[in-house]
């Protein structure tokens, strides 16, 4: 028996060595990505593209080589402990998806998305959907083909969705987004009809430098680990890295200091998840974050459930007042209102409030699902888009630039990604409700600027597991329940009911 | 014949694809290195080390795989054009060095240098050579073993030297450094005995922020291509990157604004070489810089032959005066003297002037050569070091911290690297002399702040060839002569003779 155990260990160690190498290559590629977005001079693009494709090809080859397949087969027939089994499960998933799709198709998709990006930009600039339409059609076709290689017997949209959220199931996504639509459409309608006008105390100009100091203040306040991170600016804010080095980016709009601040808090949530992954599992799935739903829940719980709470502003408003004279005399109530105001005529997802946000997601979800399932044609998209905005949000875009061309994702070939934004917000509310139950006076702690208990709760219930559990099991483990939209709906109904004086 | 040509092309294309992949992996590793020195938070080290070793192992495996050997064999038996032959020649060299050394030895050296670094630091801090001595002994032994694997019939120091300068030959290095010693020792002696005291106009405090603006001014003045580069600070200034993205770092000492400025100009020289490599050869040796002698000649020619010239300061002094009120009223002559002052009691290489600098190199060169050749023991180093300083520079270190422990290089396992510093300066003077002959009134152009002709001369004679020529051929091609110390010796004799009023 001892001999057998040794043999197993050797196989597992060999396997783990390969897994870590892949992950190191991917993390190196992540640094190249960060560099490109944040510090790379413009002229660097041609070399950077080649460097990134080389690393991506290498990581693909390492993942799909025959030996990896043999090691997986061998390990799956052996007695593994829970941690080992989880690592094998996650790598098997990646392996299957990577080996089933022919290299030529991956290359064709990559080529087509490279061409799609400038086409999408031009279409948006010139407000002319027909410039982007043929490429979008091609991309839809290629993505359907891609899905067909991975699983010809499955709904292709489901296959694509599972790329971003492998364990919650498309049914959960469909039910949840339908529930959000059905519940939020009347709530948004009520808000529109309410006579209440929330305060907008920031109407001046706020210089970027001071805003950056304020972003640093908020990261300090929330407990960002600067020894393992940094703050920079990027045109499209993101966070990236590993548990040893999880960086945050933000951007500053001189007319909207609150926007930058909330964006910083959002990225803090992502980064603090990454920082909380176990050090000793670096390079294995146990040291990597669960998929997009969980990741987004971490950004949203800090951005919305904490950062847009009255308690948070009681603590943080004085720091804003220190930085911007303008904010002196603004009462907490107004600050709280400003952070939660529903912009009723807003057409743009990235500028949306916590409530209408989900309707932007629902529209794209319904349309991309129908596209990939072959239920509608590309040229029907603009009209359908506008109709849905009218139906769900009570506003109709005048232009496609402000309509179906507003987001970059489709030009990246990303279909199935969007719903995780909403699922993440929903999960955030569920996690917050449980933390609130477990932690003594969480609201009071936030009011006092104390975030340690909440931080620890997230670490102990989510972060430190990496990918040990599947998404559904992780949620069950953390909250004692399955994934549910109940808490989110209660939260927004109560919050916006009070803010807008609805009965 | 047509079929054969196609076959050749296919083989060459396949080979080139492999070469480019290796180079992309190495360039990616270069970005990781830049990031680590410049922006990485301290906590990032454990992950970064693993990422860098993964890339380094992958690039080693790609270089040494059997297929690469077969492709090289096949290509060497075919009719190649000059460019193809140069690429094959350079890759063959790398391949031979990489395949001859067993992986275990590479790993042992890497492990030992990791241990050596903290030992060296501690030894220097505590001024106790005995802390570093055992590790240094081990490193010397491992490096001898390393050299023996590469070529058992060759002087081991020669093998190590060729790692950094493969084509000039150890004889040239030995002769040149002996010539520098023999000629410069009496010249330094004369300077020491001269009654002339050069001006030191900068005795105040100069804030880092303004110094950085001045560094940007000097990069603007010299024609740095910002679209393909950037300036940052790093504890040990360096430049790195590719023709598409060649970055400069510097550091600021508030008591020494000239030091930072000259360091920026030095790194500019390296970066502008990199920026001048041909775009369409990116990823092949024809798009990569020649070895250390040539690289150092590019930094030194800008730092010394341009940046420490009277003409340069006639143009640039007003910009210093704009930035620092202190410099108002400082005449060009004093500025020129300040940039060229010989610090007679200086024991530290990195703080040395253009003249005494080479004695620091000669000392280490003579000692490391004897160590690797087994002619002296490690415990003789401190005494020998101090004796040589007394003999060549007229100063004797009081401590080993200021003596043989001052530089980090040996703890990296770098033996044979140092002489390229001097060879580079020597080559800089040779190139400058030829450019001065070819360009109409170069001195006048520098005085007018016009650097285009000089820049073009360097591009057309050095940069754009990448590794097409070997170092010796490149020099011959650029200057019509073999490598020679004649121009450097004339240059320093004339310059310091005039500055110090020597007959």
Structure description:
Chain A has 503 residues and is an all-alpha fold. Helices cover 65% and strands 3% of the residues of chain A. The first copy, chain A, has a domain at 1-100. Chain A has helices at 2-38, 45-64, 66-76, 82-100, 103-125, 129-150, 156-164, 170-193, 208-222, 257-275, 292-306, 310-323, 332-340, 357-372, 381-393, 419-438, 442-447, 452-461, 471-479, 486-499, and strands spanning 231-233, 239-242, 245-250. Chain A has a 3-stranded mixed beta sheet. The longest helix of chain A has 37 residues, at 2-38. The radius of gyration of chain A is 23 Å and the shape is globular. At the A-B interface, α1 and α2 of A face α1 and α2 of B.
Our count of helices of chain A gives 20
Number of strands of chain A: 3
Side by side, the strands of the main sheet of chain A go 1-3-2
Q: How much helix is in the residues of chain A?
A: 55-70%
Percentage of residues in DSSP E strands of chain A? under 5%
Q: In sequence order, what are the helices and strands of chain A, one letter per element?
A: HHHHHHHHHEEEHHHHHHHHHHH
Oligomeric state of the chains present here: homodimer
Mean pLDDT of chain A: 95
What would you report as the Rg of chain A, rounded to the nearest angstrom? 23 Å
Biggest β-sheet of chain A: count, sense, barrel?
3 strands, mixed
Of all protein chain pairs, which has the greatest interface, and how many residues does each chain bring to it? Answer: A-B, 42 and 42 residues
N- and C-termini, Cα separation of chain A: 70 Å
Class by SSE composition of chain A: mainly alpha
Overall body shape of chain A: globular
């Amino acid at each position: 028996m001892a001999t057998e155990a040794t043999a197993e260990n050797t196989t597992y160690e060999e396997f783990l060595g390969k897994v870590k190498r892949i992950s190191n290559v991917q993390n190196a590629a992540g640094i190249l990505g960060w560099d490109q977005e944040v510090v790379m001079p413009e002229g660097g693009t041609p070399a950077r593209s080649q460097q990134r494709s080389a690393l991506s090809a290498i990581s693909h080859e390492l993942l799909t080589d025959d030996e990896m397949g043999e090691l997986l087969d061998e390990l799956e027939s052996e007695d593994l402990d829970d941690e080992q089994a989880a690592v094998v499960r996650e790598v098997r998933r990646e392996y299957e998806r990577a080996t089933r799709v022919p290299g030529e198709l991956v290359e064709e998709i990559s080529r087509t998305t490279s061409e799609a990006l400038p086409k999408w930009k031009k279409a948006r600039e010139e407000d002319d959907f027909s410039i982007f339409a043929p490429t979008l059609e091609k991309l839809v076709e290629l993505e359907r083909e891609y899905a067909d290689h991975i699983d010809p017997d499955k709904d292709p949209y489901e296959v694509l969705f599972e790329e971003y959220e492998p364990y919650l199931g498309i049914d959960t996504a469909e039910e949840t987004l339908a529930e959000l639509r059905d519940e939020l459409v009347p709530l948004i309608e009520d808000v529109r009809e309410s006579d209440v006008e929330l305060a907008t105390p920031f109407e001046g100009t706020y210089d970027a430098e001071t805003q950056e100091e304020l972003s640093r203040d908020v990261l300090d306040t929330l407990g960002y680990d600067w020894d393992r991170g940094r703050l920079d600016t990027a045109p499209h804010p993101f966070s990236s890295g590993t548990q040893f080095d999880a960086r945050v980016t933000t951007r500053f709009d001189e007319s909207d200091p609150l926007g930058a601040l909330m964006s910083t808090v959002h990225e803090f949530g992502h980064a603090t998840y990454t920082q909380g992954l176990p050090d000793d599992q670096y390079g294995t799935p146990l040291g990597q974050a669960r998929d997009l739903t969980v990741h987004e829940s971490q950004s949203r719980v800090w951005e919305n459930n904490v950062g847009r709470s009255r308690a948070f502003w009681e603590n943080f408003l004085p720091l804003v007042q220190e930085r911007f004279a303008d904010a002196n005399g603004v009462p907490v109530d107004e600050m709280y209102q400003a952070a939660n105001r529903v912009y009723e005529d807003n057409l743009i997802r990235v500028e949306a409030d916590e409530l209408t946000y989900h309707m932007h997601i629902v529209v794209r979800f319904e349309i991309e699902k129908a596209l990939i399932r072959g239920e509608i044609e590309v040229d029907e998209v603009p009209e359908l888009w506008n109709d849905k905005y009218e139906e769900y949000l009570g506003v109709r875009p005048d232009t496609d630039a402000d309509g179906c061309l507003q987001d970059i994702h489709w030009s990246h070939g990303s279909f199935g990604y969007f719903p995780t934004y909403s699922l993440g917000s929903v999960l955030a509310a569920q996690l917050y409700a449980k933390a609130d139950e477990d932690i003594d006076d969480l609201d009071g702690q936030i009011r006092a600027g104390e975030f340690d208990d909440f931080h620890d709760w997230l670490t102990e219930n989510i972060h430190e597991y990496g990918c040990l559990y599947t998404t559904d099991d992780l949620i069950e483990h953390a909250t004692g329940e399955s994934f549910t939209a109940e808490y989110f709906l209660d939260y927004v109904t109560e919050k916006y009911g009070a803010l807008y004086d609805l009965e």
